[in-house]
Amino acid sequence: MAVVLAAGLGTRMRSRVPKVLHPLLGRPMLAWVLDAAREATGRRPLVVTSPATVAVRERFADEADFALQAEPRGTGDALRAALDALPPDVDEILVVSGDVPRVDPSLLLELVDQRRLDHAALALTAVVAFDPRNLGRVVRNEAGSVERIVEVKDATVDELEIGEINAGLYALDVEWLRSRIGSLTPSPSTGELYLTELVTLARADGRLVAALDVDDDGRLLGINDRAELAQAEWDMRTEINAAHMLAGVTMQDPSTVYLEATVDLGTDVTIEPNVILRGETRVGDGTTIGAGSQITDSTIGRDCVVWASVVESSEVEDGARVGPFSHLRAGSHVGRDAEVGNYAEIKNSRLGAGVKQHHVSYLGDAELGAATNVGAGTITANYDGTSKHRTMIGERVFLGVDTMLRAPITLGDGARTGAGAVVTHDVPPGALVVGMPARIRESPATAEHGAGDGTKA
After folding, report:
1. Are residues 322 and 438 in the same domain?
2. What CATH number is associated with residue 364?
3. Catalytic residue among 119, 327, 358, 359
4. pLDDT of amino acid 57
5. pLDDT (mean) for 103-123
6. pLDDT digits over 14-30, tens only?
7. What is the pLDDT of residue 241?
8. Residues 232 and 289 in one domain
9. Active site residue 425
């Protein structure tokens, strides 16, 4: 079982939001750690929180169990709180920090194996760091065995010269830990109880402390401020983009492509520069996402083009074209081979196959049948100041330039509107309406026998 330490607010973030809830590629930092912990152990992690990080419990209530550290008395006290909440069948734990989102599950498994192999009271990860900074130093004896961990605030000048650091990951024998957790003593410089003192206690008991040597590749660095958060996101984004390219995605400038980890891309997708894809977005094979596009929680079909446009919580079917400068708001559905572009906006609307909508038009709460043409400046007036209403437009409808449709309203198949028409009543199939307010100029019957009678539409 994994214990995840997440009781600290993270004052260097200078935020009211707990550090581990700050987003990293679209997910809270802590989510990445919990994923790794679950994969390594096969169990729900136990997360140690404090009154300052109560929001962590609310966010991950369905994904983890929790222990409370009532006062901020250091990592040793946080581990004591975790022991009080452990299920009785747990005889070994991993201890992971909630601010190390790049930790790999395979590394956690190696750490567990190292402890078991050496029958050690605990195993830790050790890194010969290029820059030890303010991290705890690993002190070894002449035989090379780990004797203790010294925190920077308590280290001597000679100890500060040590380049091997403690990376903050541990595997521990729970039975031994319970017997010794009460022996931790407050640090003379901070008054905190350090988890790292367990190394000294284990050696005093004649127990071995195992060390898993890890390369200094930056993956185990904790995130303490927003600059380090940005660096971690850059590193993770670089890895994600590279994986997509190896899987058959073309990125013309990967350094400007922002993909959250939950995005799914098909083969032969092309992503041009300055593109942002967020959330549960899916892009089908052969589609091009053009420069300047932002897509969130949407599905884009095969062989589509989305160019310099914003798509939110919508679906675009195969072969459709969106952009330039279109905005698909939540609930929009663009049918196969349809076209939306040139400052067109859609909200909670459904466009049938082959619909063409361009030129500064707005469709809100509307449904358009196949092969309908939306003229420049067309607007559905869907809001009456109190409620939203729908506009139903049939197949092969032709909406003239600057048509305004006052919802609720229905236009039948093959209906037409003249330029500037303000349509306030339903239009029969095949009829032509013109004017303000629009009147029937030509109905299917009169189209064969002469002009219409001017009935309002």
Report:
1. yes
2. 2.160.10.10
3. 359
4. 95
5. 95
6. 999 999 999 999 999 99
7. 98
8. yes
9. no
